[in-house]
Amino acid sequence: MTHTPTSRRYLMCRPTYFAVDYAINPWMDPTAPVDTDLAIRQWSALRQVYLDLGHTVDEIEPLPGLPDMVFAANGATVVDGTALAVQFLNPERADEAPAYAAWFERAGFEVQQPKAVNEGEGDILLAGELLLAGTGFRTAHTAHAQVQEIFGRPVVTLQLVDPRFYHLDTALCVLDRQTVAYLPEAFSPGSRAVLRRLFPDAVIARPADAEVLGLNAVSDGRHVVLPSQATGLAAALRERGYEPIGVDLSELRKAGGGPKCCTLEVRGAESRREEGKARR
Ligand code: ARG
Predict the structure, then answer these.
(1) What is the CA(246)–ligand 1 centre distance, in A?
(2) How far is it, in rounded angstroms, from Cα 248 to Cα 43?
(3) Which ligand 1 atom is the nearest neighbour of the CA of 166?
(4) Full-model pTM
(5) Which residues have a Cβ under 8 Å from the Cβ of 145 and sit 6 or more positions away?
(6) pLDDT tens digits for range 115-166
(7) 9, 86, 56, 57: which is closest to 268 by C-alpha?
(8) Which of 6, 47, 132, 161 is the most buried (most CB within 10 A)?
(9) Could you state, in order of their start, the residue ranges of all structural domains in the chain?
(10) CA max distance for the chain
C-alpha cells in the first residue's frame, strides 16, 4: 500500500533556554547534566528534516526561564484555523500558555481560551474526523467537552495509566487519517478496547520502542519522523509501507520529550477543504 504525504505547517521553538531544572514527569532528573548546545543541534536537525520533506516551519521566540518551551506541541491545539489555547497543570510551565496564544493571535488565528487544564497537542490528536484526547496525568477530562464543542468533531477520551507516558503523544501516534500506532499497555482496559474498535489495523508498538519515546513521532501520511533509537517501531512502519526517518533527540528526552513534543501542527482554515478533497 502506498501512503501519500501531504505538506504540513509546523510551529517549533528553538531550545535556547532548554534545561531540566525541575521534575514534572518521571523522565526528568534535575541532578543529571544537560547539554543545551547539543539539544539545539539535535532540534535544528529535526527542523531540517521537516524542511527537506517540503513542510513549512514557523518559529516562536523562546523565552528565558521557560526551559520546556521547546515542547511546542503543548502550546495549543489548532484545527481549521482555530487555536484552542492551553492551561498547564504545572505552574513551572504556566507562562508558556500566553506566549503561544499571542503567537496565534498575531498570526491571524481565532484563539479560544481553555476552561480547564489542557496541554494542547500533547494530549489532543486529530485522527481523520476524530479528535483523540488523553487524560489521566495532565489534560483534565472536563477539557475534552470543550475540545469537542470548539472543533465540532467527535472527541474520544482515552485514559492513560502509566506515568512514563503522561501525554497521549508519548503513547500513540497518528500515522494518517485512518491509522495510528500505539502502546496498549499505556491505556486503561476500556480505552484499549476503544482503540481496538476504532483502529483494528493499528500498528501495535512494543514497550522497548515506547521507552525511547518512539511513539512521539510526526507523520505526514507517509514519512514518520521518530527517535532513531525506536528501531523495532521503524521496522514495523516500513513493513506497512511508511517511510520512517530516525532523528536523535537524546538531550530533549531528558525532559521527557521527543520529535512530536517539539512540533505543533498548525492547521489553517484550508485543512477543511483539503480533507474534503482527500475524501472524494
Ligand atoms: N518536560 C515537559 C513536561 O513534562 C515535556 C513535555 C513533552 N511534551 C509532549 N507533547 N509530550 O511537560
Answers:
(1) 20
(2) 9
(3) 11
(4) 0.96
(5) 155
(6) 999 999 999 999 999 999 999 999 999 999 999 999 999 999 999 999 999 9
(7) 9
(8) 132
(9) 9-279
(10) 54
Q: Which atom of ligand 1 is nearest to the CA of 120?
A: 10
Q: Which are the catalytic amino acids?
A: 167, 261
Ligand 1 atom nearest to CA at 88:
12
Q: Residue 160 in 3-state DSSP?
A: strand
Please report the pLDDT score of residue 280 as a whole number.
Answer: 36
C-alpha cell at 99: 506566549
pLDDT of residue 269: 85
9-279 is classed CATH 2.30.30.60: no
Residue whose CB lies within 8 A of the most ligand 1 atoms, among 173, 261, 263, for a mutation test: 261
Residue 21 alpha carbon to ligand 1 centre in Å = 13
* pLDDT tens by residue, 64-81: 999 999 999 999 999 999
120 CA to middle of ligand 1, Å? 11
Half-sphere exposure (Cβ direction) of 120: Cα atoms closer than 13 Å: 33
